[in-house]
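Input structure tokens:
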């Protein structure tokens, strides 16, 4: 905890010059947040940029958040983003209905992946969500959405948990096992009965391992590339 407190103090010091800026009722401000992951107990710090305006409710005034963006503390992204938002406000160009680039913001999972240099972090759902489309493309030649399987994680991802111990004994982690398990809802199962899904994953793991590793490498590289991407266009 002491280490986190020291990191928090250092992160706050770095953004001390990024003071709140208000123009035409709109305000941009930068804060430091800490996030604890439920499944891994890992803790990360990140910068939280908020754009909002004051609203009146009865006799009180509240700050209404219109948009927010998150950035890792060890990048220059928060400074680049803040400066561009500040210029929009100062020049009177910011509008509530303008299209800011949501892809600039980092998810907590992406930040944890960068910190731990692995996709095998936190809940298996996070791995499935980020891997599904590209893995389906590798296996079937089309993405999961193109094959009307975009909702397969929410529909069947929970069922994989009962097989995790068996997969672990076979040297297959829960993340890869869960993704291969989703294949048992497709034609690749062929004549194998559905109740043999656990065995099918184990028996076919080596067959799909090259595809798993290829897509994992691609996804990890895409996330890591965000670290060095200079924010020059926010709209």
């Amino acid at each position: 905890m002491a280490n986190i407190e020291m990191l928090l103090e250092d992160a706050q010091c770095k953004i001390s010059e990024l003071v709140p800026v208000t123009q035409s009722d709109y305000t941009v401000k930068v804060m430091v947040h800490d996030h604890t992951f439920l499944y891994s107990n890992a803790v990360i710090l990140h910068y939280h940029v908020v754009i909002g305006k004051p609203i009146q409710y009865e006799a009180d005034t509240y700050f209404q958040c219109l948009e927010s963006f998150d950035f890792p503390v060890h990048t220059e992204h928060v400074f680049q983003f803040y400066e561009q938002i500040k210029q929009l406000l100062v020049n009177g160009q910011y509008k509530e209905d303008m299209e800011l680039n949501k892809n600039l913001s980092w998810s907590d999972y992406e930040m944890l992946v960068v910190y731990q240099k692995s996709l095998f972090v936190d809940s298996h759902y996070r791995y499935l969500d980020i891997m599904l489309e590209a893995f389906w493309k590798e296996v079937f030649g089309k993405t999961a959405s193109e094959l009307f399987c975009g909702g397969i994680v929410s529909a069947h991802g929970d069922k994989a948990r009962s097989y995790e111990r068996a997969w672990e004994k076979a040297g297959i982690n829960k993340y890869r096992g869960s993704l291969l398990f989703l294949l048992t809802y497709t034609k690749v199962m062929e004549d194998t009965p559905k109740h043999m899904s656990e065995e099918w994953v184990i028996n076919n793991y080596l067959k799909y391992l090259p595809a798993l590793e290829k897509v994992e490498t691609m996804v990890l590289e895409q996330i890591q590339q965000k670290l060095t991407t200079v924010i020059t266009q926010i709209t």
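Residues 197-228 form the longest helix (32 residues). The two ends are 38 Å apart (CA to CA).
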